[in-house]
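User:
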Amino acid sequence: MLRYVLRRLLYAVPIILGVALLTFLLFYSTSTPEQMAVRGLSAKNPTQDQIQAWIVQHGYDKSKSEQFKKHVGEMFLFRFGKSDITGESIGARIREGALPSALVAGLIFSGSVFAGIVLALVAAYYRGTYMDRLITLTCVLLMSIVSIVYIIVGQYTLSKVLKLFPVAGFADGLEAWKFVMLPFIVGVVSGLGRSVRLYRTFMLEEMNQDYVRTARAKGVGEKSILFKHVLKNAMIPIITSVVLSIPFIFLGNLLVESFFGIPGLGGMMVDAITNQDFAVVRAMVFLGTLLYIVGAILTDVCYALVDPRVRLE
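Assistant: Predicted structure:
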């Protein structure tokens, strides 16, 4: 297995280089160093000398090939440099935002997976009945609502009316739970419809397999079939969808972190895109690519752990 993981990591190097090159070219097609200098300087009407000094200071006076080589070298060493707009250390900002993002994303991720599997098991167990139809209908309704509606309704209902949680903000230590619970509830409910329908499909496909019919013919109960056989075999496609979604959860909670005032990586990415902060954007894209590759490798490893028939060679 170790040889397989090392080989996959080596295969990932060209992918990272390709993504870095694409990001580099796309940014230069939308913005110039002069424009970045004007945004980065605090003066309202900077002189040409100030603009040129800013460009030299940030290394944008060098050729594009030199800039790209330096960028790639620093990324692989996890040296992200400083923001083009604020001048603060990107690495320090990422370390500060990683904990709030990990806390919120981890809770939403674990809660969504647990609730999705439980409701999918209930729907599969009562397949064809009113319970199954009710769960399926509810899932379709949940999928039909835009994510921002959940945020607005959650803030109004749970914060303004019931006053259970703060509307937005974040705090360190044990006080963080008050600010995390509302994003957690909104995040789980907003993604529940898709996950339940997907997991239910996986389980129903397994329940139509020959080994399930054989187990029924031998007199094995439906609960034993569902929990001992169907769930175990349905975990392979479930793992695929779950593990591959990890990078998008950590870097993709843009709306949640922005609306709830969470000082995480999602809000950092939104600010960087809004301000066209190239240094921050390329660092976040690099981390997103790296997380996606790690997620893909973990998916294969989880295959082997869940299903002994799978061998990594």
